[in-house]
Amino acid sequence: MQHLNALLVYLTGPVLIVALLGTGLFLTFRMKFVQFRGLIEGIRITSGKYNDPRHPGDVTHFKALCGALSATVGVGNIAGVAAAIAIGGPGAVFWMWMTAILGMAVKFTECTLAQQFRIVHEDGTVSGGPMYYIERGLGRKFKPLAILFAFFTVFASFGIGNMVQSNQVAQILDSTFGIPPVITGVVISIMTGLVIVGGMRRIGQVAGILVPFMSIAYVGGALVILAMNAGAIIPSLALIFKSAFTGTAAAGGFAGSAIMLALRSGVSRGLFSNEAGLGSAPIIHAAAKTRIPVREGLVALLEPFIDTLVICTMTALVIVTSDLCGSGLRDAPLTSAAFENGFAGGRYIVTFTIPLFAYSTAISWSYYGDRAFEYLLGRRAIMPFRIIYCIVLFFGAIASSTTAWVGTVWAYADIANLLMAFPNLLALWLLSGVVAKSLKAYMKDYGASVLESDAPMEMAPMENEA
Fold first, then answer.
1. Inside any domain, residue 393
2. How far apart are CA 447 and CA 285, in angstroms?
3. Is 249 left (phi over 0), alpha (psi -120 to 50) or beta?
4. How many whole angstroms separate alpha carbon 367 and alpha carbon 244?
5. Nearest Cα to 149, choosing from 277, 257, 54, 266?
6. What are phi and psi of 459, to 5 degrees?
């Protein structure tokens, strides 16, 4: 655990902050603040304005968005935000917001590239994501980098999308209802297997129902608590802004160390939550039915807004207004205690939504893992991966719930995410000109035919050519 923490501190230090925030700033200016001028168009596209069943792909824009959100709207929104505040103090929330705002430009860029360089197979299914735009966009000499990304994605899928989710669900159901972790493990493994065996189309169908329902339920509960404690909202927001630059971390320490803790925990938790720059979401957005890559990029930029600026903010405000930041609690128990502090029985909102959030994350991350596994080993490797994925879910649920073990799992998940991010961020810098050109054409409303002809979506043989 000590070595994992040392590696995590190194990776989440100045290197990550410069890489992630620097890329976000660069792409914000390169794409001329697309996160602001493209927001309304992204909503129009998601609503189905341009849907055409004849377009290549597996799912609609809305289902692709829900599929990606089902991966990001997970335990990180509940336990991850609480962990960031427990470690970095309220100031960590500010840096989560900054990561999300800049991340909207990053998400737009990576998901546009995923569409532009995806492969449509003879059976109509799609394979796409950073491993494809690294190899096909940058050239064959960059294939080792694409392989590295795919390997890290498989590695990460068993952390952020798997063990973290099932372990947190098992913990909260055991502590609240006394349900044995082995029962939780069996149920979540079987339910996940029933969905992922149907591939992206079934994942999209389930996510299209689950994501709106669980998001509204959670945000609605948080809004009720905040309405009951409205007088504390403005002081809490002031504390968040103040702590980001001058405050003391919840765990203690002098001002300089507190600022760094807030920055580091906020940025890493922001990445964990909305996954902008991670390279995961492009894998699922590549499956959307469209012939114009920019459109899916505009849909994708909605994710950090919904995930972090809305849902994570609800969690953060409930915690900060509860005055429990320095209570010694962390992860899901801190969020649960903050909701209970809002009104009697409030903890059941967390108890109810965590299994839904975790389940949705598990099914979407299985898709990320199996696309990466397919890239590495071919299409015949997909089903074995899905079986292993469900088995690991079970073992994640029954594993020890001690603080040390949970800390190890979170550290493992963070490291796996960061190892994915670096190859992807490099590709975004090198391919940003391709996206900027397509965006300019789209925004001028003259480039639909040009955009379609630019997108290399040739048919691929059934066995992955990689």
1. yes
2. 21
3. beta
4. 36
5. 277
6. -70, 140
The reply to whether 296 falls in a domain is: yes
CA distance 226 to 402: 32
163 lies in a domain?
A: yes
460 within a domain of the structure (yes/no) = no
pLDDT digits (tens, 9 = 90+) for 36-60: 999 999 999 999 888 888 888 888 9
Query: Which token pair is 284?
Result: 């699922």
Alpha helices by DSSP H, listed for 34-124, are 34-37, 39-46, 61-72, 75, 81-88, 91-116
Task: Please state, as a whole number, how many other Cβ atoms lie within 10 Å of the Cβ of residue 190.
Answer: 12
Question: CATH code at 91?
Answer: 1.20.1740.10
Q: What pTM was computed for the model?
A: 0.87
For the four alpha carbons of 12, 18, 23 and 28, in that order, the dihedral sign comes to positive
Measure the CA–CA gap between 299 and 284, rounded to whole angstroms: 12
- Which pair of structure tokens corresponds to residue 205? 């169908």
Q: What percent of the chain has pLDDT over 90?
A: 44
Whole-number Cα distances in Å, 399 to 160, 194, 366: 15, 23, 20
Amino acid identity of residue 123, one-letter, is D
Joined tokens for residue 18: 């410069």
The first and second tokens of residue 100, run together, are: 């999300």
CA 311 – CA 211 distance, rounded (Å) = 12
The partner residues of 385 in beta bridges, in order of sequence, read none
Nearest to 124 by CA among 201, 52, 65: 201
Beta bridge partner(s), residue 120: 126, 459
Q: Which domain holds residue 122?
A: 2-436
Contact present, 219 and 311 (Cβ < 8 Å): yes
Question: What is the number of structural domains in the chain?
Answer: 1
> What one-character-per-residue DSSP string does 150-202 give?
HHHHHHHHTIIIIIHHHHHHHHHHHHHH---HHHHHHHHHHHHHHHHTTHHHH
